[in-house]
Amino acid sequence: MAAISVTILPDASLETDAKVSSHLKMTVPASWIQKKRPMRKLLDAALKQWQLTDRSYALRRKDGTALDLDASLGTLEEGAKLVVGVAAAAPVAPPKPQTPAPPKPSKAYATLRSGARIPLCGLGTGGVPGLVGEQCVDIVSHALRSGVRLVDTASQYGNEREVGRALRKSGAPRGEVFLVTKVAPLEQGYAAATASVVRSLERLGVDSVDLVVVHWPGAWVPEQKDWGAAQWLGGGADSGPNVARRLRRETWRALEDARRNGLAREIGVSNYTVPHLEELMTYAREPPAVVQSECSLLFSNDDVRRWCAARGVHFQAYGPMGGAAEGGDRGAVGHAALQDVAARYPERTPAQVALRWLTGKGVSVLPKSCRHERVVSNACLDFDLAPADVARLDSISDGRPRYWDPANVDKVDIFNPFLDKARVQRELASAGYAAA
Ligand SMILES: NC(=O)c1ccc[n+]([C@@H]2O[C@H](COP(=O)([O-])OP(=O)(O)OC[C@H]3O[C@@H](n4cnc5c(N)ncnc54)[C@H](OP(=O)(O)O)[C@@H]3O)[C@@H](O)[C@H]2O)c1
């Protein structure tokens, strides 16, 4: 491989810079070509010759085409004419707009008696109005994709199929998601409750749920449509309270067996008052792992929470925003004392402060929202509340349930579709019982 001669001319832009006027005749040694030295070697040689070292320079052909400084010198032909000029400043890329990192749902857990872990921050799908149809699939899959790992549904909500579809659509690993469902009042009794769990699994499209709870202590049977107060309160084996007690007991036995048979990892109850829980303990072969009940800033449900705490039972809050009637901004979230406390946490919404108050007590929360941004922000609770703020929030509850008082469920279950409630209430009142 022979050496080649090239001419290097100064660009006009160099004259002002370094008073270069003469061109250079340079010989490119054969060894440079053989060893495929890059074009920049030539540029360096020219700059050295002209004593130019303090700026960026570029090499191009005389016709103006740019030369790749990393290309091999072997691509140059004998007698090539090159020009050295000041390199055009590389276009400065406009700074990329800083997209804030998406909020991250908390990964905080409580540990159940069995050692299983339950996420503290979840999503409710029932309520008034609940999440149903495609909206349910959309909201639940969005929450799961965003990292929410606790979802509450119920046979009664009529949305288990959609929750199951959302689970699959989201791609969230089944093992990471804590799925809760419930046995409805019409499904109380051993056979009906067992069938209820199996049907829930089919609708959800899963082999087992993480938790199944008795939806509420009331038990409905179609014959109740013919019952008046005498039947309800007659005291016989088939009176209202006794039928309800028998069905509760059978239902619990069905759930214990469902757990043993691997259909549910944990079992629990919902809307049970302390007397219902005490009754349960008289026949339970195993105590509930979880009690799900109303709990929010407005109604902190201290009796049931204390009962749970004393027995190692996990307490889960439904209606954590104050619920259907006083939910969100109309109630707990809009409460003046909460707004006041929340003003000290400018990075957080009042709703997050209300929920963090609950998770700070080890309570798992099931807020419901039909808005994408809220279902995620409601689960982003990795921050601390000052003890003085917790004490202030502790004082808001007035002890009045915002949903209903299940204490009277054996007298009149206000949700029972079979019951002529007006008639029973009238007869109960005339018999001297307070209306439910
Ligand atoms: N076991 C039971 O008997 C039982 C009974 C009731 C409920 N539950 C469970 O508990 C879940 C929650 O109960 P719930 O839906 O009745 O009441 P909730 O969650 O206390 O309140 C829901 C209300 O709060 C609003 N909200 C949600 N996030 C908000 C935020 N960040 N800021 C302001 N407002 C917000 C919602 O409005 P938007 O939708 O417009 O956001 C809705 O109006 C239910 O979905 C169900 O899974 C269980």
What is the compact description of this entry?
This protein is of the alpha/beta class and 436 residues long. It contains 16 helices and 14 strands. The strands form 3 sheets. It has an 8-stranded parallel β-sheet with strand order 7-8-9-10-11-12-13-14. It has a 4-stranded mixed β-sheet with strand order 2-1-4-3. Strands 5-6 form a two-stranded antiparallel ribbon.
Explain what you see:
There is one protein chain. With 436 residues, the chain is of the alpha/beta class. The protein is 35% helix and 15% strand. It has helices at 12-18, 30-34, 40-49, 133-146, 160-170, 190-204, 229-233, 240-260, 274-283, 302-311, 323-326, 336-342, 350-359, 372-377, 387-394, 421-430; strands at residues 4-10, 24-28, 57-61, 81-86, 109-111, 117-119, 123-124, 150-152, 178-183, 209-214, 264-270, 290-294, 314-318, 364-365. Strands 7-8-9-10-11-12-13-14 form an 8-stranded parallel β-sheet. Strands 2-1-4-3 form a 4-stranded mixed β-sheet.
State the end-to-end distance: 105 Å
Number of strands: 14
Looking at the structure, what is the overall shape? elongated
Stretches where pLDDT is under 50 for at least 5 consecutive residues are none
